[in-house]
Design goal:
Rossmann fold, single chain, globular, two-stranded parallel sheet, 11 strands, alpha/beta, 14% strand, seven-stranded parallel sheet
C-alpha cells in the first residue's frame, strides 16, 4: 500500500484514479480547489489559491504521501476566451506544476507523476506512431505549456531526489466525458448527419479507467522512476469507425456522409475551423510499447468495452434528464 496525493481529484480523470487507487487498497488524499469529491475511503484537502500559490505553507503536517499524481491543469479548449491564452496556460500548467513539485519535495515526497498530454509532442504522427522520444512539432499554447512543464520537472528532478514520471495520454473518454467527445455522442443521439463517413485517419484514445490504471502503476512501480510513458487503448480506431461503434452502442443510426477530406479542409478554412478539421483528418497514433515492456502494463479494458460503458452512461443520463422534465 502506498500513500498517494491526487491533485485535481474531483475532475474527470481524478475521480477515475481515486476510485482505482481505493479499490487497490492505497491510502488516498484528494487535493481539490473547489467542491468536494465525496468518495468513501478518500481524505480531502481543499486549497483554493490560484495556481497552487502557498501550497507548501498550507500542507497539513500529518500528510506524508509517497507520491503525488498531478492531474490539475488548465485544459485545452476550442474557443479560449482568455486575452492571453499562452500566459494563462503557463501560469497554471508550468508555474503551478512547479509549485506542486517543489512543495512535494520539501515535504519528503518520493515521486511525482505528471499527467502531461500527447499535445506536448504535436497533433499528428507524420506516418509513424509517436514514441516518447519524438521531437515536438507545432504546439498550441496548451501543448507548449505541457512541454515546458515537462522540461521544468526534468530539471527539478535532476537537481533533487524527487523522482519524476511523465505520462502523455491522447484524448480521454469514459463516463462523465465532456467537450468534443460529448458533443459527438449528442449528435449521434439526435440523429444528425455528420460529414465524416470518408475519414479513415486513425486517432489513439484512452479509456479513463485504463489511464487511471496506468497512472497507478506509474505511482507505485519502482521501474517507472524518471521515465516518460505514452498511454493509450490497444485499438486505434478511425474517426468513422469510432462513430459507427458509438452509434451502435447508443442504439442510434450512424448517419455518416462520405465527404472527401479535401473538401472538409476547404470548409475548415472558410469557417475558421482549420485546426479542428486537421485533427479529424490527420493520424495521431501513440507508440505505447515502452510502458508495456518496462512496466508489464496492459490496458485492463478494450476500447470496445470502454466505449460501451461510455455509451451506457450517456443513455442513462438522457433517461434521467427526460424523467425530470
Amino acid at each position: 500500500m502506498s500513500g498517494i496525493l491526487v491533485t485535481g481529484a474531483n475532475g474527470f480523470v481524478g475521480r477515475a484514479l481515486c476510485e482505482t487507487l481505493v479499490r487497490h487498497g492505497h491510502d488516498v488524499t484528494a487535493l481539490v480547489r473547489r467542491g468536494t469529491l465525496g468518495m468513501a475511503g478518500v481524505r480531502e484537502w481543499r486549497h483554493d489559491a490560484p495556481d497552487f500559490a502557498g501550497l507548501l505553507e498550507a500542507w497539513p503536517d500529518d500528510l506524508t504521501p509517497d507520491c503525488v499524481v498531478h492531474l490539475a491543469a488548465r485544459v485545452h479548449v476550442m474557443r479560449d476566451e482568455s486575452p492571453d491564452p499562452g500566459k494563462a496556460f503557463h501560469a497554471t500548467n508550468v508555474e503551478g506544476t512547479l509549485r506542486v513539485a517543489r512543495a512535494a519535495h520539501a515535504r519528503g515526497v518520493r515521486r511525482l507523476v505528471f499527467a502531461s498530454s500527447i499535445k506536448a509532442v504535436g497533433e499528428t504522427d507524420g506516418g509513424t506512431p509517436l514514441a516518447e522520444s519524438a521531437a515536438p512539432g507545432w504546439l498550441d499554447p496548451y501543448g507548449r505549456s505541457k512541454r515546458e512543464a515537462e522540461d521544468a520537472l526534468w530539471a527539478l528532478g535532476a537537481q533533487t531526489s524527487l523522482e519524476i514520471v511523465v505520462v502523455r495520454p491522447p484524448l480521454v473518454y469514459g463516463p462523465g466525458v465532456r467537450a468534443n467527445f460529448l458533443q459527438m455522442m449528442s449528435a449521434l443521439w439526435r440523429g444528425m448527419p455528420l460529414p465524416l463517413g470518408a475519414i479513415d485517419a486513425r486517432r489513439s484514445m484512452v479509456y479513463a479507467e485504463n489511464l487511471a490504471d496506468a497512472l497507478m502503476r506509474c505511482a507505485t512501480d519502482a521501474r517507472a522512476a524518471n521515465a516518460c510513458f505514452h498511454v493509450a487503448d490497444t485499438d486505434d480506431l478511425s474517426v468513422s469507425q469510432l462513430l459507427r461503434v458509438l452509434a451502435d452502442d447508443l442504439a442510434k443510426p450512424a448517419r455518416l456522409i462520405p465527404v472527401p477530406p479535401g473538401l472538409l479542409s476547404v470548409a475548415g478554412r472558410l469557417t475558421g475551423r482549420s485546426a479542428q478539421i486537421q485533427r479529424l483528418t490527420s493520424d495521431l497514433r501513440l507508440d505505447t510499447s515502452l510502458i508495456r515492456e518496462k512496466l508489464d502494463w496492459q490496458p485492463p479494458f478494450t476500447a470496445k468495452e470502454g466505449l460501451a460503458k461510455t455509451a451506457r452512461w450517456y443513455r442513462e443520463t438522457q433517461a434521467t434528464r427526460h424523467s425530470h422534465t
